């Protein structure tokens, strides 16, 4: 296959909340994008970059919750852009302040140290339907509020390398906390909206092609076809 039909895709869960961190590149020894570097991912991310000889060129954030952005500043290192929707831009000022009562204490107890935050030096605001060309990859931004005001998904007209042909997918969606396998992101946190989520599912998710692979912010991958058929939160929309 042509290189852009298959992209190097590596992912692993963060140490807290099992947030999926993704690394995408056109191949070994190339530039890459990092998606949603969460809590405690720096060491494992460094190992991935070393193993595949990759150089990050941008960090993409599906939204501004701390479990998706906690490691963005050390990954960016003051040089790379942190890409986030403008409606969630304020969350990068200090996402720790937005945690629910008791959550910060639980987080610090788990890691045995006080949580700290430093805002990324370079922040790039993205908009709905914006096309991004990063690390040789072409991505489209899909604004899908509901989980947060600025929740977005990123689509690519490519699929991960190593994916069996019988899976039958032709494109990929990094869905963040909008769409999961069999579920959706919660809407009861500050900035969430049930009505906005319903609109996003109806107007943004459902029109997507069935043969699109979904790589969510938590849990296993799925497809738009599978979620259209069995996800209870998509029924009746």
Q: Which features would summarize this protein structure in a list?
A:
237 residues; alpha/beta; Metallo-beta-lactamase, Chain A; 6 helices
CATH architecture: 4-Layer Sandwich
- The topology string of helices and strands comes to EEEHEHHEHEEEEEEEEHEEH
The CATH topology: Metallo-beta-lactamase, Chain A
Into which percentage range does the β-strand content fall? 25-35%
End-to-end gap: 37 Å
- Strand elements, count: 15
The tally of helices reads 6
- What percent of residues adopt helix (DSSP H or I)? 10-25%
The major sheet is characterized as: 7 strands, mixed
- Which regions are unreliable across 5 or more consecutive residues at pLDDT < 50? none
CATH class: Alpha Beta
Spatial strand order of the main sheet: 6-5-4-3-2-1-10
Could you tell me the radius of gyration in angstroms?
17 Å
Outline, from the CA principal axes?
globular
| Corresponding CATH superfamily | Ribonuclease Z/Hydroxyacylglutathione hydrolase-like
GO molecular function: hydrolase activity; metal ion binding
Protein name: Glyoxylase-like metal-dependent hydrolase (Beta-lactamase superfamily II)
Pfam family, one: Lactamase_B
Organism: Calidifontibacter indicus
Describe the structure.
The chain has 237 residues and is an alpha/beta fold. The mean pLDDT is 92. It has a single domain (3-234), classed as 4-Layer Sandwich (Metallo-beta-lactamase, Chain A). A seven-stranded mixed beta sheet has the order 6-5-4-3-2-1-10. A six-stranded mixed beta sheet has the order 7-8-9-11-14-15. The protein has a two-stranded antiparallel ribbon with strand order 12-13. The protein has helices spanning 42-52, 66-69, 72-76, 103-111, 194-205, 224-230, and strands at residues 6-13, 20-25, 31-35, 55-60, 81-85, 123-126, 131-134, 137-143, 152-156, 159-160, 171-176, 179-180, 183-184, 212-216, 222-223. It is built from six helices and 15 strands. It comes from Calidifontibacter indicus. Pfam families: Lactamase_B. Its cofactor is Zn(2+). InterPro entries: MBL_Glyoxalase_II, Metallo-B-lactamas, RibonucZ/Hydroxyglut_hydro. Residues 18-218 form the Metallo-beta-lactamase domain.
């Amino acid at each position: 296959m042509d290189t852009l039909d298959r992209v190097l895709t590596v992912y692993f869960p963060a140490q807290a909340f099992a947030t999926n961190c993704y690394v995408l590149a056109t191949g070994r020894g190339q530039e890459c994008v990092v998606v949603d570097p969460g809590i405690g991912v720096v060491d494992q991310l460094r190992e991935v970059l070393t193993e595949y000889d990759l150089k990050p060129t941008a960090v993409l954030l599906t939204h501004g919750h701390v479990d998706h952005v906690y490691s963005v500043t050390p990954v960016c290192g003051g040089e790379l852009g942190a890409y986030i929707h403008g409606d969630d831009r304020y969350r990068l000022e200090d996402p720790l302040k937005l945690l629910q009562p008791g959550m910060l204490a639980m987080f610090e107890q788990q890691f045995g140290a006080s949580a700290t935050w430093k805002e990324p030096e370079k922040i790039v605001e993205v908009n709905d339907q914006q096309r991004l060309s990063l690390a040789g990859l072409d991505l489209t931004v899909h604004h899908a509020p509901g989980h947060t005001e600025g929740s977005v998904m990123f689509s690519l007209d490519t699929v991960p390398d190593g994916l069996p042909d019988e899976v039958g997918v032709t494109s990929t969606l990094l869905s963040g906390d909008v769409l999961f396998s069999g579920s959706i992101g919660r809407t009861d946190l500050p900035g969430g909206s049930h009505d906005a989520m319903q609109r996003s599912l109806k107007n943004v998710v459902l029109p997507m092609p069935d043969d699109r692979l979904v790589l969510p912010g938590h849990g296993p991958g799925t497809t738009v076809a599978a979620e259209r058929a069995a996800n209870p939160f998509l029924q009746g929309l």
